[in-house]
Amino acid sequence: MSDIKLTKNGLRDQQQKLTQLNRYLPTLKLKKAMLQLEVNEARQEISALEKKYEEQRMIALEYCTLLTEKTVVDPVEVTKVLEVKKRYENIAGIEVPYFDGAEFQEVEYTLFDTPIWIDGVITGLRALSEIAVEISVAKEKKDALENELRNVSIRVNLFEKILIPRAKKNIKKISVFLGDQQLAAVGQIKVAKSKIEAKKEEMLKEFIEGIA
Question: Assuming Cys at both sites, which of 18, 88, 92, 175 could form a disulfide with 167, CB separation 3.0 to 4.6 Å?
């Protein structure tokens, strides 16, 4: 408040600032609504993936008895993720990741050296591992959206609760000050005019008395 100029230029500056704030606020609110929608969808996506993971985990548990048999294939090695494939898309002004697949470490083995069920086990374990990676990417996306939502929410609150009320208060303060100055100026003019009229009347009176 102390740095505002109590002048017509200062009043114009504050009015322009208020106009800009009011013009930009709806855009911020729209962005906030879009981000909130995206965050909600991201949370639902994670919930669905976690359910899918649990279902796949229950299937994988059935492999436990099979994996107790000694084979040339190490389940840990065949499910090791070498690369997570992601693409990025712009949502409400920020880049967020989307899962595009996972590349697993290849392990060579011959059908003669391994049980016939090993292919199915590998496929099932990799499916479980892939869902886990997809959940991780989905959470990364959600975190990015939530972070941006927090930032935009802070800006909306800043506009609504601080900047716009402050600009309105400044405009009122400057307007009152300029109004008081104008009234004071009018009063001074009236006083000066009264003095001039009184002086003229006194001079006229002296002139008439001088003639007499």
Answer: 18
How distant, in Å, are the alpha carbons of 3, 92, 144, 152, 172 from that of 30?
32, 9, 18, 10, 29
Which residue bears the tokens 């601080």?
A: 162
The DSSP code for 90 is: E
Structure pTM?
A: 0.76
The verdict on residue 28 lying in a domain is: yes
In a domain, 187, yes or no: no
State residue 3's pLDDT score: 73
Q: Is residue 115 included in any domain, yes or no?
A: yes
Q: pLDDT digits over 121-164, tens only?
A: 888 888 999 999 999 999 999 999 999 999 999 999 999 999 99
Stretch (H or E) spanning 152: helix 118-158
Q: Which amino acid is at 46?
A: I
Residue 119 lies in a domain: yes
- Distance between CA atoms of residues 200 and 99, nearest Å: 94
Cα–Cα distance, 198 to 193 (Å, whole number) = 9
Count of domains forming the chain: 1
Query: Which residues lie below 8 Å from residue 82, measured CB to CB, with a gap of 6+?
Result: 103, 104, 105
- What is the residue range of 61's domain? 8-168
| CATH number of the structural domain spanning residue 90 | 1.10.287.3240
